[in-house]
């Protein structure tokens, strides 16, 4: 199964890239993917997640060709 992961704002800075394709060997949740991709970075802030442009929680099960976005909470003024 292949997914596309996109990183935004300070998360992109911490990861060092804006996107990547990831091959999953088995079904995974969004939370499991975040744990995997973030294990070697220094980001301690809150993470919001969307799959195919819809907000999801960490237990959302991914499907082939899903687009996952990780981003910090949006603030404005």
Short overview:
The chain has 77 residues and is α+β, with helices and mostly antiparallel strands.
Structural account:
This protein is an alpha+beta fold. It has a single domain (2-71), classed as Beta-grasp domain (Ubiquitin-like (UB roll), Roll), CATH 3.10.20.30. The protein is 21% helix and 29% strand. The chain has helices at 9-15, 30-38, and strands spanning 2-7, 19-23, 48-51, 54-55, 67-71. The protein has a five-stranded mixed beta sheet. It is globular, with a radius of gyration of 12 Å. It starts with a strand and ends in a 6-residue tail after the last strand.
Features:
single chain, 77 residues, alpha+beta, five-stranded mixed beta sheet, 21% helix
Low-confidence stretches: none
Name the shape in a single word: globular
Q: Architecture, according to CATH?
A: Roll
Count of β-strands:
5
- What does the largest sheet look like? 5 strands, mixed
Mean pLDDT, to the nearest integer, reads 94
| CATH class wording | Alpha Beta
CATH topology: Ubiquitin-like (UB roll)
Gyration radius (Cα, Å) is 12 Å
């Amino acid at each position: 199964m292949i997914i596309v992961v996109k990183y935004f704002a300070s998360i992109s800075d911490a990861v060092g890239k804006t996107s990547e394709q990831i091959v999953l060997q088995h079904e995974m949740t969004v939370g499991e993917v975040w744990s995997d991709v973030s294990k070697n970075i220094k980001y301690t802030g809150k993470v919001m997640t969307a799959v195919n442009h819809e907000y999801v929680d960490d237990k959302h099960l991914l499907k082939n060709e899903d687009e996952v976005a990780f981003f910090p909470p949006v603030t404005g003024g």
